[in-house]
Structure formats: structure tokens, C-alpha cells
Fold this protein.
Amino acid sequence: MQSPNDDWPAVDCTVSAERYQRVESPGDVEAAATALACAQFPGVDRCVTASLEAMLKALTPSFSEVEFRGEPGGHQDGANRGFLRSDSLVAVLFVEGVDDCSLADLRHLERGAPPCSDSRICCEERLLPVERYLDGLHRLGARRVVVNAITGIPADAHPAPGDAEAIRAVLARPEMMAPTSPLCAIPGWTSVFPSPRLTRMVADCPGGVWSMCDPRLPTTPDGQRELMREIGSSIARAACHPE
């Protein structure tokens, strides 16, 4: 694998035939952490991300009335069959240096489509409401759900996992209301921008949110694995119920 920073050691990112990483024993945690590290590297130059829409489609069954690009149903009981289990905790982890851009109309991505008034593609009035994704988590039934993110919040923001009030206080900070102003630049990688939509998802089903700008955030694959263990511990403490 070619990492974005030549100082980072190589990681074996061989593509698996599985659509998701199975963790059925303590020994599987290492493979899951490596998969996360691999997932972060591709797409550094991508234009927009539809993280919330991708999450919803992955967890929604094919017989659902929820529509995706005008077609009903998702991948839960198809390509992702077996991922959701009745006795499991559903832990969602977003790893994004930009905010979600789940557009209501994909024609905004076409060449020549007019931009928003501030020259962006992903202004709020064009996006599907965050409530769509909160409702999607409620539809999962009586299982526990927790949402987490490593994303664009100020580097000095350290809300405790599960503390919805502290996470909403981060959302209210002026830096989170300036979508075109980078919070930081990660050398050899990319700039990190405010992610209020992803942060709100964490606040409404409170898990943990970590700043991608935090200098304490590990930037090597080994460090990423250690962070995964920390997140796993936080998930166990902060799990919430969608109802």
C-alpha cells in the first residue's frame, strides 16, 4: 500500500472478499484496526463524501421504504447480510476530515451545475436532513446503538464520550460555524474542516468524538491500532439506546 506520508510504515491493505471485518475473538482486533488504517488512506483527494447516506444504506434492509436515489431499500440483508445480529451493539465510527455531504439531488455534482452562494457544493440547503439518519438508527429496533467520530472539531475540544451536553457545546463554538475555514492541516495528507453534521450525530446518540487535528491523535498504523482500542473502551462505556 502507498501511504500519503513516506514516513509512515507500509501496511498490508490486501482487499478482502468480505464487505465488513469480523471481530469474533480478541485476536481479530488487530485485523480490524489494520482495516481501519487502510480505509483512511484512499480518497485523500476526493471531492465530497456522503458518509451518513452510506451508513444508512449499509444498515437498511432491502424491503425498507427508505429511498436511495429514488430506489427503495438498502444492503443490510443483501451485501451486508450477517453484519447486524440481534444480540449485538451497533457502533458506528466515522473517520472524516470533512463534513458529510449527503446531497438530496445528485445533479448538483454534474459538471456545470451552479455552486452555492459561498461557492461550495455542499451547502446545508442542498443536503438531506440529519434527522433522516437518526430515524434510520431508530429503525434498527431494540438493539443498542452508539455513534462515534474522528473528525473536524477544534484540536483543544475533548468532550467526554457519552456527554451529549459537552458535545453540543463543541457544536456551538465559532470554529464549527465556518465551513470553508480549515481547522488545521495535516502535513503530507490534507486539511481538516469543521464537521457539524457528523458531530451532531454523535451528540444525538452519544458516543465519543475526537478531533482529527489533535496532535495527540496517532498518525502511524501502530498508533491507529492503539486508538481503536481506546475507542472500543469508550464505546463500551457510552453505548446508548436509539429509543
Q: What stands out?
A: Residues 49-238 form one domain. The CA atoms of residues 70 and 200 lie 26 Å apart. Confidence is low (pLDDT under 50) at residues 1-10, 41-46.
